[in-house]
Amino acid sequence: MDFEEFKKKVKTTFRLDLNAYKEKQLQRRLDSYLSKLKLRDYGELYNQLTGQRESYEKFLDHLTINVSEFFRDPQRFEELQHKYLPGLFHGRSMVKIWSAACSNGSEPYSIAIILEEMGLSARSRIDATDIDRQVLKKAAEARYNRDGLKNVSKNRLERFFTKQGDFYLLKDSIKKKVVFRYHDLLGDDYQKGYDLIVCRNVTIYFTREAQDGIYKKFNHSLNPGGILFIGGSEMIFNYKDLGYEKLAPCFYKKVK
Ligand SMILES: C[S@@+](CC[C@H](N)C(=O)[O-])C[C@H]1O[C@@H](n2cnc3c(N)ncnc32)[C@H](O)[C@@H]1O
Fold it and tell me: Which of 87, 124, 135, 237 would suit a FRET pair with 45, their CA atoms being 20 to 30 Å apart?
């Protein structure tokens, strides 16, 4: 089975659109997976994916890069807290937030911490989604090692975490603020009614066409005046065509 046929079959069987991922990166990750599992070709990989329970989840876990950390790009999170969140709560009794491609939960929990500090927890709801069920399990556990906490101040560590051996457990008051669920940005429907969508460090893996499709769907998911918060190395060049105004690097506002 060649690469093209493999992609077609994966789409039919698992509804995963591998064509939307940048081809070279995708092929590199697939090849490293083949050698890790000592499989000869894509045909063997496809048989393995369809033959054994949980092998598709392991495959997805390898394919997707889950690196994340609390307050990734601290300066942007400062801006979110002091410049943009207060405005979003203005005139709204409830603010709905979506962390899309949330990985191990560091991102939505960072936002939950900020909202708690602002005294706005009770007026907000945070949904967090990812395509990788294994990473979603880790997110629900909310147990982190030092590496992902380097941007968490001593004060926040003491207030919101409990140390357990080499790990830090997030306190229940923050944990319970985030609702995790499975969602594929490329294949699933998007819920509507969000005031803030945070989607960082995932669209870099997708083709330009797929990126446009995602940003367009986010636009439809946002309430008027809602904000899209993207990654530090990302940029939406055609933001006007997609219905946004650029507020600052990483921040785009829905205008139509
Ligand atoms: C590098 S992490 C980014 C995590 C977090 N947003 C951050 O910036 O720290 C990328 C995440 O995207 C997820 N992902 C990859 N393809 C996806 C898709 N089609 N739909 C939803 N999530 C996807 C991966 O499982 C991974 O958890």
Answer: 135
